[in-house]
Amino acid sequence: MNLKPNQVMDELLEGTYYPVYFLQGDESYFIDQISDYIEQHALDETEKGFNQMIMYGKDSTVESVLTNARRFPMMASRQVVIVKEAQELSNIGRKEAQNLLESYVAQPLTSTVLVFCYKYKTLDGRKSLTKSVLKHGILVDCKKLYDDRIPSWIGNYAKSKKATIDYATAQLLADYIGNNLERLASEIDKVLLNLGSPASIDKESVQKYVGISKDFNVFELQRALTVKDNIKAQRIVHYFNANPKLNPVIPVIAVLFSFFAKLLIVHQSKGYSDQVLAKELKVSSFFIKDYIQAAKNYHEDQVIRNIAYLRKADLMVKGVGNQQPHGEVLKELIFKLIH
């Protein structure tokens, strides 16, 4: 079966385990979440000594993995074999090894839970091994989330911790941290450690425990650009320059580039309903009015010009034809974007 990470976690929480899991893809957070849960909960502590084997791809072969998988559990109903960094298995790409693995997957030892953590790569869907995993095991594609889905993920993560977070605060975290789920989870955990649970996470608690200013952040900078508030925008840039480690310039430029790229889509999608436009922009309908307002303040030629400014500034802060401090580049960029 091909299951999504959340589907697998739901089944694990209900106590359902399968003989073979193949966790693959670019989002290592989901791979670690599933494998860590199995490692921590599939066996009692008294059973783990004899019945849990953690292997690493660079130190193993497919044959050694299968040798361990074919063992019977000792004084337990199951054993667990987890292969971390499975993409580093020395012979995983060879036909002979894939044939052995395919044969095992087709007839696995039902008392073994075998987990492959195949990070940053995926099996070739055309090959028989993949088809065998789909037919007899659990194949989990762990893909990076699109940026517009990060706030919802934050909300769901908070809910799983018996906490709540409003959408604007979730968006603030997403804008500041990006789509690094591991870091997002860590920062939310840090807030909850201080607030206790159940809790309601708001901008004030994020400001206090994560270090994001509720008034001086890239989200507020974007809002200032939306209404062409140059005074507020320059105040935020001044704050960024005074706190460069908390507000590195390159991610700020990336967020603003995404903003103006979306404005270009707005201009090219005249007549679309708010719902359709939200889907095109891959943002919550909560923010559509802001993009529509911004599109009125920046005509299409200005948007195209600003995208060019952002590209040039990105090269400058990366050292291409520039000797100016990053703060000066950002200050000049914001002035140009508004004017």
The ordered string of helix (H) and strand (E) elements is EHEHHEHEHEHEHEHHEHHHHHHHH
* Quaternary: single chain
State the low-pLDDT regions, or none: none
How many strand elements?
8
Strand order of the largest sheet: 1-6-2-5-4-3
Helical/strand content category: alpha/beta
Measured by DSSP, the beta-strand proportion falls in 5-15%
Annotate the secondary structure layout.
Elements: E1 2-3, H1 5-13, E2 20-25, H2 28-41, H3 45-51, E3 52-56, H4 62-69, E4 79-84, H5 95-106, E5 112-119, H6 128-136, E6 138-141, H7 150-160, E7 163-165, H8 167-177, H9 181-195, E8 199-201, H10 203-209, H11 218-226, H12 230-242, H13 249-267, H14 274-281, H15 288-297, H16 300-317, H17 326-338
Parallel strand pairs: 1-6, 2-5, 2-6, 3-4, 4-5, 7-8
Helix pairs in contact: 1-2, 5-6, 7-8, 7-9, 11-12, 12-17, 13-15, 13-16, 16-17
Provide a concise account of the structure shown:
This protein has 339 residues and is α/β, with parallel strands linked by helices. 57% of the residues lie in helices and 11% in strands. It has 17 helices and eight strands.
